[in-house]
Structure formats: structure tokens, C-alpha cells
Amino acid sequence: MSSLFIPVILGTARKGRRSENAAHFIFEQTKARAGVETEFVDIAKIPMRLDDAGEQMKDPAFSDLVTRADGLILVVPEYNHGYPGLLKHALDMNLKEYIHKAVGICGVSAGQFGGARVIEALLPVMRELGLVTIFNDVNFGPVGKIFGDDGKLLDQRFVSRTTEFLDELIWMARVLRDGRENVAPV
Ligand SMILES: Cc1cc2nc3c(=O)[nH]c(=O)nc-3n(C[C@H](O)[C@H](O)[C@H](O)COP(=O)(O)O)c2cc1C
Fold first, then answer.
1. Which atom of ligand 1 is nearest to the CA of 78?
2. What pLDDT is stored for residue 14 in this prediction?
3. pTM, rounded to two decimals
4. Number of alpha carbons in the 13 Å side-chain half-sphere of residue 31
5. What is the CATH number of the domain that holds 100?
């Protein structure tokens, strides 16, 4: 079986974003997995218009990346109990590219719930996009205690938590790829 392609998407463009530490950590853990290829996607670098929305402002490179993906990892900070509007604006540019692909979500927050609320808020969006959510998350919170200012991981428990998350996501991505390739739509 060829490698799975599972990019990691950093879901905020905020200056000084602490989610970047979490996203880099998840990216490195994903890169270390056998049979998995990944890529780091920073939504700050996706060209986006602010006077339009949806598929008509599709970015060809982002569309191609999602088309090639077998699964996605979203690393998303909690902003007022919701997700950053810019992430939604970016995700809305694609549609058929997501269908029957796995998605895992990592929440990031200053508060102790580790972005649990932003993950819940994203679930209906994932469903509408045709993505298949897994039942493992990684909750980075309070993020200031998990990574130092230099981005170094301070809490080693996140290694095993991420392993469990990736185990489930990789399984789901593999099963869905087999389904897309071998099971005809009804
Ligand atoms: C507009 C905004 C709203 C926020 N709302 C919440 C919140 O609802 N709950 C929370 O725990 N932290 C909240 N925070 C703090 C972020 O979770 C915190 O900045 C964390 O580091 C992750 O976001 P970051 O990647 O932008 O740094 C908010 C931050 C911003 C900028």
C-alpha cells in the first residue's frame, strides 16, 4: 500500500499564535510515522480574498493538496468558544476535495479545556464538508504550560496522547481510502 498523505493545517494567522507550537509538534509526530507523508499548511499563506467566499475563490494549490490528502489534521485555537473565522473562510474554498476523507482535530486554548469547545463547534462543519471525524482529539490547554516560549514541549504526556490520536486517524484514513478506491457509491 502506498503512503497515506495527511497534511497538518495550522488554523490561525494571528501574530504570536501559540497554536504554531502545537502544530509543529503534531507535524513532527506525524512525519515520524511509518507509511505516512505529511505537509505543514499555514492558513496565513493561503491566498484568500476578503470580498468573496466559497468555491469560486478556490486556491489551486490548496485544492490540489486536499485532493491528494487521505486525511487532514486541523490544529485550531479557541476564539470566544468558536473557531477562527479565517480558518472557516479557507476551508470553505473546497468541497468535493474533502469527501470521504478522515479528519482529526487538535484544540488549543489558554484555558484548561484545551480547545474542547472549538472542537465541538467544528464538528457540524466537518460533517457538511463530507469529512469523517475520529473520536480522538488532542487538547492543548493551557497551552502556555505545555510549550515553552522556545516552542519546546514541556509536558511529555502529549507524546502518548498524540500517538493515540494518530493511531486512530491513520486507521480511519486507511479504511476510507480503501473505500474510495474499492467500494462503488450506491
Ligand atoms: C479573539 C480571541 C478569543 C479567545 N477566546 C478564548 C476562549 O474562548 N477560550 C480560551 O481558553 N482562550 C481564548 N483565547 C486565548 C487563546 O486560546 C490563546 O491565545 C491560545 O494561545 C491559542 O490561540 P493562539 O494560537 O492565537 O495563541 C482567545 C484568543 C483570542 C485572540
1. 17
2. 98
3. 0.98
4. 9
5. 3.40.50.360
